[in-house]
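Bit of a strange request maybe. I'm writing a small parser for structure token strings and I need a real example to test against, not something I typed by hand. Could someone generate the tokens for this chain?
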Amino acid sequence: MHLQESGEMYLEAIHVLSGQLSLVRAIDVADYMGYSEPSVSRAIGLLKEGEYVTVTEAGGLQLTAKGTAAAEKIFERHTLLTSFLVKLGVPEEIAAEDACKIEHVISDDSIQAIKQHIKG
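Reply from user aminoacidic:
Good idea to test on real output. This should exercise your parser:
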């Protein structure tokens, strides 16, 4: 299963929420992303099919190793791009919004070049 942009966004949300909450539920993801519970439930079902997420006995969402790798990659891109845009003078809120759009389409080569540029 190829991970679509929306799937990456859900994985990133679960990853971020996992750092904030001891148990991440679908409702938490819905609130965080501003989506309806049925939309989140459908997406979680697809992520389960793709073996990116499992659901614990307590009803919590847990990233698999595959899901964690994908979530960490997209989160690193988001953080790096946001930081880079802020350093260029873009206001932080706009930089974060733009990074969210760019992170899904930018190549690994471009990300590496930005990393090298930032290191100086």
